[in-house]
Fold this sequence. Notes:
Helix content is about 10%, strand content about 45%. By secondary structure, it is mainly beta. The protein has a six-stranded mixed β-barrel with strand order 1-3-2-6-5-4. A four-stranded mixed beta sheet has the order 10-7-9-12, with no helix packed on it. Strands 8-13-11 form a three-stranded antiparallel beta sheet, with no helix packed on it.
Amino acid sequence: MLQVNMESTVRTVFGKGPMRQLRMREITPANLYSGGAESVSLQFETGKLFKNLLFIQRRNAVVTLQIEGDSKGERHVLVQEIQKEPVSGSLLHVDFIEIDLQKAAKFSVPIEYVGTAKGVDLGGELQVFKDTVLLRGCPLDIPDVVKVDITPLEQGGLGLTYGDLIIPENVEMLEKADSVCVVVY
């Protein structure tokens, strides 16, 4: 799984007016939630935060937060929600959720189909039914993407199922193995 480092500081101001003043100074407010414990209010430099969020967009990523002014200092988190201004698209607020790197969790991982199927070369049409797979495992064991070679697929064949996907040994697939992912008609 992708890993990213981000720097932040503990936020000490609250309310609508102070939040607007922070945003005018190019600082984005955020919250860190940690499984039942009290949330931590954070603030980030907007430019750096936007760049990091753009890098991990639509990907599973473990973010290591270095928090200035926090007793723990460094925490491993996932991005839970990003709030943007609807017209300009500027960042308004970000929510993070703390995770334990040693505990298994569910992740939706994209499937990347590699190559050109034989059946497509002979005039067939490739039909993709599934583009993600649900996996359970420790966050750092989850792959960024599951790659599948589709070159042996022939027209009118059975296609590829979830059972044909190659995943790491210490990761469990939560999908039905006989569900068809891709086929050539």
